[in-house]
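Problem 12. The chain below contains 55 residues. Write out its predicted structure in token notation.
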Amino acid sequence: MSETCCLQVGQDVPDFKLETFEPTKGDFGETSLETLKANKKWTILLFYPADFTFV
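Solution.
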């Protein structure tokens, strides 16, 4: 049985990149957690159990 590694309260989230839609440009772009931190942006991470789940 493999052990799954999980984040706990107080631990840093690993850096990640994701594709975004930029409404001001009307085009897609990319952002990363590192960029958001460097720009001192507040970030909320929301996880949900499955696609198409109403949150």
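Discussion. DSSP finds one helix and two strands in the chain. Students who got a different answer should revisit the alignment rule from Section 12.3.
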